[in-house]
Design goal:
There is one protein chain. This protein has 209 residues and is an alpha/beta fold. It has seven helices and six strands; from the N terminus they run ββαααβαβαβαβα. β1 and β2 form a beta hairpin. The longest helix is centred in the middle third of the chain and has 17 residues. The radius of gyration is 27 Å and the shape is elongated.
Length: 209
């Protein structure tokens, strides 16, 4: 069971916390993480790319010349794919690329990624995100103090923390979420994860089941 130091926003150690070994002590499973990333990105695709078939392009429907007797190849329509400006054959059409992997696998990938972040020193636990106001400057200063200002940072705390929500949205390299919104893509994209003690309990409750 990993035991980590808990800090405040002034980067002072204020205690220790024993983490759930099932959630924060999982082995690295690259194949499972890859599958989870593939599912996440597939579900994010808009699927709106399309080409025009012969039924979509403009042009007359009349036969250009008679079938026989001209010495030329027979042709039915100027919208034929054989002609320049004609329809496209087997081109992409709007579709839903999304699919759903089993929840146990998705949670397993998140556990594996969180555990690896902890092992490499990219996971920091703070006692709370008690900000005096919603000013971005105050949060930016706290991140500098914590030593996480030079990288992409993922903040995990309750979405009811209005000051944190408002203060973090103007920082381009910072994202705020809660335990229920945590996903594999954000964990891998952000080199540093700063999570509150309250959010740790929430994540362990979701992923430890």
């Amino acid at each position: 069971m990993p035991v980590v130091k808990v800090k405040n926003l002034k980067n002072e150690v204020v205690g220790e916390l024993a983490l759930n070994d099932k959630v924060f002590g999982a082995d690295l499973n690259k194949a499972l993480i890859w599958e989870a990333i593939k599912e996440f990105r597939a579900n994010g695709r808009r699927g709106t790319s399309a080409t025009k078939t012969r039924g979509d392009v403009s042009g007359s429907g009349r036969k250009l010349w008679k079938q026989k007797g001209t010495g030329r190849a027979r042709i039915a329509s100027i919208r034929s794919p054989l002609w320049k400006g004609g329809g496209n054959v087997h081109g992409p059409q709007p579709r839903d690329w999304g699919y759903k992997m089993p929840q146990k696998q998705r949670h397993g990938a998140i556990r594996s990624a969180l555990s690896e972040r902890l092992r490499e020193g990219g996971l920091l636990i703070v006692e709370s995100f008690d900000l005096a106001d919603h000013k971005t400057k105050q949060l930016a200063g706290a991140l500098v103090t914590l030593g996480t200002s030079e990288t992409h940072v993922l903040l995990i705390d309750s979405i009811d923390n209005r000051n944190l929500v408002l203060a973090s949205r103007n920082l381009p390299t910072v994202k705020h979420t809660n335990g229920y919104g945590l996903n594999i893509y954000d964990i891998l994209r952000h080199e540093q994860i700063v999570i509150s003690k309250r959010a740790v309990e929430e994540v362990e409750r979701i992923l430890g089941a």
